[in-house]
Structures are given as C-alpha cells and as structure tokens.
Amino acid sequence: MKRLMSAIACVALCAFTGPAAPAAAEKQPVIVVRGPVLVAFFEPVPQAKLAKEPDTNEALVDFHLNAKNVREPFRKAGIEFHELYAHSFRLRDGNKLTTFRTGKVGVGYYLVAPGKDPRVEYGVMTDADLLQLANEYFGISAK
Length: 143
Known about the structure:
four-stranded mixed β-sheet, 25% strand, globular, 7 strands, alpha/beta
C-alpha cells in the first residue's frame, strides 16, 4: 500500500514538475542571496527511471514531502527556501556569481548566507533534520 501511495504521489509530482530535460538544455536557476537561503535540490529524473527504480521514486516523494513541511517554518524564521529539480543552479551574492553542480549524488541541501561560506549536505533529510540543520548553520530556530 505504501509503494502504491508513493507511486501515485510521484506521478502527481512528475506531472507538476514536468519531464526532465537533458543537462545541456537545462536552464540554470539564479538565486539572489539577500539573507539566509536554503536550496533543496534533486536532479531531474525521467518518468521511465522512476517506474523502474522504486527506491528513487520513494526518495523523490520523501524529498518533496519534507520540503513541503519545512517551507512555512523557514518562511516564519526569515529563511528563503527553494526546492529545485536541476543538475545545477547559480547563486548571486552581491557581485559574486557562483555555479553549484549537484554532482554524483544528485540530491541534497545547499545553505548560504551573506558573508558565510556555504554548507552542502547530500541525501534526503527529514523535515526535523532540515530544521535542525538550519538552526546549526544560520543560528535561527525555525519551528
């Protein structure tokens, strides 16, 4: 039953996010760093791969649901939150433009704030873990 619910949620998510584009054709999102920023990233996954790999499907569903659960607490704490499905993205901090590539793991979290070195955590984290991570890095309690 859990796998069926995961599959249904994934189909709905895939319909929402659209088909995965080849890396060369992918448009790189640009995030302007004005304050605390947390970017949740997951590489684009073709629907055919999701159908063949239930673990990837379940990881995607968990990633999306945990991101949904932290969105409001982060907003209230003043942390800008982005959920991206891309192989790379760019960040503008003042005059500095940085490109981040997700690498082999393809899923994780990028934290940055003006004047701070970024922190990257790979893998899917629970909403509680994300709240704790934000507290550790930003020194802001998001509840």
